[in-house]
Amino acid sequence: MVCCQALASRWLRRLGALSIAAVIGGASAAPPALTPEDAYRQLRQQGRLADVTIDGDLDLGRLLQGGEPPEQPAGWRLDAVQLRGKLILRTPTPLRLRIGNAHLQGGIDFRGCELDRFALHHSVISGPVRIEDCNLTGPIIRFDFNQFERELRLHRVIMTHRPSFRETRFGARAELLACELATEERPSRAISFRSASFLGPALFNNSVFHTNADFRSALFADDAAFLNVCMPAGAAFRNVHFRGDAEFRFCTLGRGDFGDRDNLTLFAGRADFRGCTIDEARFRFTDFRGESSFVETRFGSGGASFAYANLAGRTDFHGLNSTGPLDLTHAYFPSLSFVWLEIRDAVLAATPDLRTLAALHARAAAAGDTAGRLELEYLLERERFRLRQARPLPALTKAPLAFVEGLVARLVGITEWLVWGWPTGYGTKLERILALAAAAWLITWFWLLVMPGNPVRVKQQGREQDGGAALPLYRPLAAAGQHRREPVTRPERLLWSAQLAFRLLFKVGPRDLRLAVTCEEAAAAGRRLRLLRYGLLSLWLLGSLLLVLLALTLANTSPVINQLVGELFPI
After folding, report:
1. Which residues form the signal peptide (predicted)?
2. DSSP 334
């Protein structure tokens, strides 16, 4: 037993010694340090640096000095290099450069250069990065899986093929200003910023993306600016978090995809799309927690979908124009402001449901948009009528009472639509009830004109009877006691018929107009007179109904009368 313990103790001491030796050996195996001159010499000889540390700046332009430019672009690789200075390139001579798993402590300074192929991946850049007025012309342009700890500036850079910034971390301000990306790329290949993290402000102002831009699952921890950005092929911003303000003013997008149910996008701050032109916009389930502005935004034939979107902050749709449908199905917009006439056609093209119409009606009423409120009220009532009529009746054999109640309710709804809904648009269409009243007057006028016997007469002074009472005389039926007809001129006939038709319907007009016939005509046409009596009664009832409908519609559509009625009959 004692021997076993001694043997185990001996092996433990040996393992400890081996561990210490391994640590010491690992510490002594640090990458060898090179001077910049040694690095230039090794690059000229081998074209590659690997697992080395360079003390100082590395100017790649010096590698091209002292000779004729090469026929093929020169190429260099830096693998697992630790550069304690700055990486510099300021020559227009084309070259190829690959940097991987490196640590560039001094940053990057490229100006006026041309890179046939450029790859910077899986690296840490501690210093500032400045790439200006450069052309990246090769088929490989990679910035994947990097960590930029200081500001990044890409100004006026042209990239002929699609660059990739996948899962890159931008620790400070990132600027891609006035750049042109993927000028010669196939449209099917996307410029990728997928899963990138922008911890500082991100600016893409005045840049042009010639193919699709992929920002899926990106994080913008600070403000993001896409002012005057042109993305004609479209951009995907699905599952993106904008924690600061997002400025898209005057941008041009082919198809803007800002998420769906499984990949919704968050705008925690202000979302500004003023003056943008977007062929098709998709904001389904998008969460707008701050203010959002779509003033003077233009949507193309694809329209815009805000279905199930949360527009919790103040939202401005003034001046919005959409050629395609504007879908607001189940969207939440408690502070939406708009002019109904500007978005009317686009909203109706999306066939809004009852809930959407009710929300729009409430917003139009709160904003004082009288025309919008009235039309939305009409659309809302019409949709309610349609839903009530479309509701199936209970089975007569199983629930006879419910069947009868449902049938009566359906008949009441149809009657309400015939009497109130169709003639007045549920009290919102003043022009419709006025047109119907004018049509009824014209039809009555025409009926009086074509009646046989020309019965429209004007009451005149009567003749004295034996008892002293005066019998009324009607011109031109009789005059001065003579029982003979006088001819009626055409202007008189037109005028009297019009006045009498108006009085029969609307109870306003000359009181001396009558429908008069002689006793002989009355005896010969008894049945026709009864029908005439019923016709006159129908006209009186129709006119009364039209007057009531006109008064109710006028009270609902006229703000002055509506206010007056509210003061006289407060609720």
Report:
1. 1-29
2. T
CA–CA separation, 282 vs 290, rounded Å?
A: 18
Whole-model pTM: value is: 0.79
Q: Are strands 213-214 and 298-305 parallel, antiparallel or unpaired?
A: unpaired
Inter-CA distances, 118 with 29, 140, 259, Å: 30, 6, 32
All structural domains of the chain with their residue ranges: 30-134, 392-424, 431-462+472-557
Classify 565 as helix, strand or coil: helix
Range of weakest confidence among 197-206, 318-327, 447-456, 503-512? 447-456
**Spatial CB neighbours of 25, under 8 Å, sequence gap ≥ 6:** none
Contact by Cβ (8 Å): 470, 481: no
Residue 298: both structure tokens together: 């233009």
Nearest Cα residue to 436 out of 449, 418, 411, 456: 418
Closest-CA residue to 234 (of 216, 214, 204, 206)? 214
Other beta carbons within 10 Å of 22:
10
DSSP H/E element including 282: strand 277-282
Of the candidates 433, 436, 384, 392, the one whose C-alpha atom is nearest the C-alpha of residue 413 is 384
For residue 419, what is the DSSP state? I
SS3 per residue for 503-540: HHHHCCCCCCEEECCCHHHHHHCHHHHHHHHHHHHHHH
Residue 159 CB: number of other CB atoms within 10 A?
24
Bond preceding residue 476 cis, omega within 30 of 0: yes
Apex 199 CA angle, 236 and 193, nearest 5? 30
DSSP-based three-state secondary structure for 234: coil
Is a pLDDT exceeding 60 seen at residue 4? Answer: no
Yes or no: say if 59 and 88 are a contact pair by the CB < 8 Å rule.
yes
Instruction: Give the three-state DSSP class for 470.
Output: strand
Q: How far is CA 139 from CA 95, 189, 243, in A?
A: 13, 12, 34
Residue 145 phi, psi (nearest 5):
60, 35
Pairing of strands 180-181, 513-515: unpaired
Report DSSP letters for 533-570, one per residue.
HHHHHHHHHHHHHHHHHHHHHHHHH-HHHHHHHHHHS-
Please determine, for residue 14, whether its predicted confidence score (pLDDT) is greater than 60.
no
